[in-house]
Amino acid sequence: MAGIYIHIPFCKSICHYCDFYKVLDEDNHSRFINAVLLEAKLRKDYLSGESVSTIYLGGGTPSVLSVKELSDLIDGLYGIFNVENDCEITIEVNPDDVGIEWLNEIRKIGFNRLSYGIQSWNDDILRMLNRRHNSKQAAEALIFSEKAGFENISVDLIYGIPGYDSASWGKDLEQTFGYNIKHLSAYHMTIKPGTFFGKLKKAGKLNELDEEESNNQFNLLIEKAENAGFIQYEISNFAKEGWFSKHNSNYWRQVIYIGLGPSAHSFNRISRQWNISNLEKYISAVESNKKFYTREELDNKKIFNEYILTSLRTMWGIDLDYIEINFSKEGYDYVMNLSRKFIDYGLMRLENNNLVLTNTGKMISDNIISEFMMV
Fold first, then answer.
1. Is the pTM of this model over 0.90?
2. CB proximity list for 152: less than 8 A, separation 6 or greater
3. Each residue's pLDDT tens digit, 166-184
4. Gap between the Cα atoms of 347 and 365, Å rounded
5. CA dihedral defined by 54, 138, 265, 318, rounded to 10 degrees?
6. 63 neighbors 92 (Cβ within 8 angstroms)
7. Distances from the Cα of 173 to the Cαs of 177, 179, 182, 287, in angstroms?
8. Is pLDDT above 90 for 27?
């Protein structure tokens, strides 16, 4: 079992908070599509013959691609890899890119999961974030998606936005759960250097939300999601029973995956690779069969850290049996000794021989995870 991630870097406009690799959209994407499929052919052995259970198009804005371009891409992958019959195929979508005809066509291609970057239902906030869509377009997109026969629909929201209070965040959540969605990804706003917001912060014109308000909004997220029948299966991800993202769950459970396209990452338990974050250099290197990625070999310590980093964010937590089998008694003792103080502080609990974070622990998950890292 393996996954494929494809990074589509094109955007019609640049959001003020985004630090993913992206370029302004261009009219013709055919050279990019050809390069991605050529990379797939060159690197197919990275998956060691494993069948593909998930394909995920992220970005950037994958929904700027035409139906034909998406069809060429998916058909090409099926011709290169052994794709399972029930493969989960996800595309990230900007609400103003879609119409009922486009949705009908991409469903025929094989897409069976939509991930909408809605971020907020407040039009003032959307303008502040420099999002292209408005709340009306977001609502129409969700309605059109159901009419087109999509069941597996996910929504992305952002909380912790400067100047946005808990009451407004609660309204966003209530409106989201009012639609027949199966999955929610909710991320706290982080102001990154190099972004438009990062420049404002550096100039003293924008500050991140204070910790108390951030915690209030996180707690409200958990409460509203639980009331709506959603399970928090990862710190930022919530879903109805049976609708967890297979692709993201595989990331967190150490399933191997290959990343195609500029800036995409790959992992096969032996190494981690990441492609060059430059569209033109990426395409030129792939076309001339020159090196376009950096590779890091993973020793036992790095593999341990990878497991802790991914597993502790999930509802399944650290599997102590897995630790003992794969990292010996020394690894088991290391984890157990470290965990005691977090259990005593109510930040972690032992459940069915798994160590999982409590809701309080999730608020400072980065700090807890960093303490478990072997150096």
1. yes
2. 88, 112, 113, 114, 182, 183, 243
3. 999 999 999 999 999 999 9
4. 9
5. -70
6. yes
7. 6, 10, 14, 45
8. no
Q: Are 63 and 97 within 8 A, CB to CB?
A: yes
- The answer to whether the beta carbons of residues 295 and 41 sit under 8 Å apart is no
Q: What is the CA radius of gyration of the chain?
A: 21
Q: Which among 111, 10, 8, 94 is positioned nearest to 54, based on CA atoms?
A: 111
Model confidence at 261: pLDDT above 90: yes
pLDDT band at 28 (very low <50, low <70, confident <90, very high): confident
The phi, psi pair for 329, rounded to 5°, reads -65, -30
Burial of residue 204, with CB atoms counted within 10 A of its CB: 0-12 exposed, 13-18 middle, 19 or more buried: exposed
